[in-house]
Amino acid sequence: MSLRLLVPLLLVLAFCWSAQTRAEDIAIRHISLEANDDGYILDADFEIDLNPRLEDAINKGVALYFEVEFELTRKRWYWFDEHPVSRQLTLRLSYHALTRQYRISRGALHQSFSSLSDALRVLSRVRSWRVLERGEVGAGTDYEAALRMRLDLTQLPKPFQVSALTNRDWNLASEWQRWPLQVRAPVTEKAPQ
After folding, report:
1. Global pTM value
2. Does 169 reside within a domain?
3. Which of 50, 116, 122, 138 pairs as cysteine with 54 (C-beta 3.0–4.6 A)?
4. Number of domains within the chain
5. Helix/strand/coil (H, E, C) string of 157-182?
6. Residue 106, beta-bridge partner list
7. What's the average model confidence in pLDDT over 13-28?
8. What percentage of the chain has pLDDT greater than the value 90?
9. With contact defined as beta carbons under 8 Å apart, do 124 and 50 qualify?
10. Measured between alpha carbons, how far is 187 from 180 in angstroms, rounded to an integer?
């Protein structure tokens, strides 16, 4: 094989290897979806690996917004797939220099931590998130559920959004985790005592 063919081949292999190693910056470790009287509750565990550029941005006061996305799809052979449910949960990770504390915010709720590793440990656990309301989808129907977490680049300050377009360090996301789900009717009556 000539040197002219070998160099491009090695460059392509190096690019594919580096893209593959960077693809799993967020990994889904565990998903639990349980039915109750009100609908379905989701618990999930993620593994978040921040690169040095993102850690530096947080420590300099840039807030990072993480989106946890849940989708329910019903396959149809005669038309496009139906997407009856799509939910998003926004989690904000920030650092406050005056108090030297990391903060996770979910809506109006805040929780502070003394270290980034503690904050990431809590950020990586989603608990008791109601993703389906009772009666929202048909009971006994087969669906495909999907879940992922990603860094929401649209909520970054504008200069960082421009940088994120050209730099892979800002692209932080898990792959979609998909699994079959048959929705059953939630229990509507209490069991006799």
Report:
1. 0.79
2. yes
3. 50
4. 1
5. CHHHHHHHHHCHHHCCECCCEEEEEE
6. 109
7. 57
8. 56
9. no
10. 21
Q: Which residue has the tokens 């609908």?
A: 39
Q: Name residue 98's amino acid.
A: L
Where on the phi/psi map is residue 191: left (φ > 0), alpha (ψ -120 to 50), or beta? beta
Which residues lie below 8 Å from residue 6, measured CB to CB, with a gap of 6+? none
Which domain, by its residues, includes 149?
24-182
Whether 1 is covered by a domain: the verdict is: no
173, amino acid identity:
A
Evaluate whether residue 131 is within a structural domain.
yes
126 phi/psi in degrees, rounded to 5: -110, 125
Helix (H) or strand (E) holding 5: helix 3-22
The Cα 91–Cα 147 span in angstroms is 15
- Residue 115: pLDDT band (50, 70, 90) is very high
Q: Is 38 domain-assigned?
A: yes
Compute CA 62 distance to the chain's CA centroid, rounded to the nearest angstrom.
19
Paired tokens of 41 = 């509750």
> Does the pLDDT at position 166 exceed 70?
yes
Q: Where are the beta strands (DSSP E) in 5-121?
A: 26-36, 39-48, 64-74, 82-96, 101-106, 109-113
